[in-house]
């Protein structure tokens, strides 16, 4: 039986124009790494136009994948998963660069993978009552995807848009080969459901963005919901 220290874990941090928050985020992750030395940190700079890449380079312990052009969140995350597959990591954890994710919950999302309870563990803001509130518009979108995914899978996913998630080696290989480009979090739930892989949600704490600004406007949110809905329905039609 493998010991905890024998696991290779890669934290994938996609970052686009995050110069206001990335330093604080990396300092927190490196502090956690003192207690979890088997964890590596990889920032995927998604063609940022600000000083994000320069700031990451100042952290010698952090792996930097510096993409020459902006691929979008899906392309950036998949780049991290390709790196994890190439270097044979056992577990990969997606972690936001803007400081919303709580670094102290890392083991909370990793443990169900180590224990073999699931293939992907999603850190959810809504499994239990937490301090997170979010805007009414964002909450509406989360409820919408919870309803849509329930119709298609008959399973309840309370936080389908959460980007705080851990995956095992089998899913790393799948995502390295195929991953949605735009706002992929809800879509990959149906993708893994179609592959008959296990998904678990676990309660985590999240904060508001700690710096910079979100690129998602109310108009883009509506466009996002429409586009992702079509992608999810297409996933449902695909036969293995």
TrEMBL record:
Domain Glycosyltransferase 2-like: 11-172
InterPro entries linked to this entry: Glyco_trans_2-like, Nucleotide-diphossugar_trans
Pfam families xrefs: Glycos_transf_2
GO-annotated biological processes: protein N-linked glycosylation
Gene3D superfamilies: Spore Coat Polysaccharide Biosynthesis Protein SpsA, Chain A
PANTHER family noted in UniProt: DOLICHOL-PHOSPHATE MANNOSYLTRANSFERASE (PTHR10859:SF114), GLYCOSYL TRANSFERASE (PTHR10859)
Protein name: Glycosyltransferase involved in cell wall biosynthesis
Record organism: Oikeobacillus pervagus
């Amino acid at each position: 039986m493998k010991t905890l220290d024998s696991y290779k874990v890669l934290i994938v941090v996609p970052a686009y124009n995050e110069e206001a928050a990335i330093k604080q985020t990396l300092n927190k992750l490196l502090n956690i790494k003192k207690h979890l030395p088997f964890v590596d940190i990889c920032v995927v700079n998604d063609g940022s136009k600000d000083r994000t890449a320069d700031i990451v380079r100042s952290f010698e312990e952090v792996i930097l994948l510096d993409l020459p052009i902006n691929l979008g969140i899906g392309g950036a995350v998949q780049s991290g998963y390709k790196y994890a597959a190439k270097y044979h990591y056992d577990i990969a954890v997606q972690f936001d660069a803007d400081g919303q994710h709580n670094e102290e919950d890392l083991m909370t999302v990793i443990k169900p993978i180590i224990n073999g309870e699931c293939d992907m563990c999603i850190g959810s803001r809504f499994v239990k009552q937490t301090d997170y509130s979010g805007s009414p518009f964002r909450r509406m979108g989360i409820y919408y995807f919870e309803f849509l995914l329930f119709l298609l899978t008959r399973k309840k996913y309370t936080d389908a848009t959460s980007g705080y998630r851990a995956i095992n080696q089998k899913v790393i290989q799948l995502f390295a080969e195929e991953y949605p480009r735009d706002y992929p979090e809800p879509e990959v739930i149906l993708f893994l459901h179609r592959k008959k892989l296990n998904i678990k949600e676990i309660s985590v704490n999240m904060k508001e963005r700690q710096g910079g600004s979100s690129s998602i406007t109310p108009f883009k949110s509506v466009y996002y919901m429409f586009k992702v809905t079509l992608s999810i329905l297409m996933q449902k039609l695909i036969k293995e």
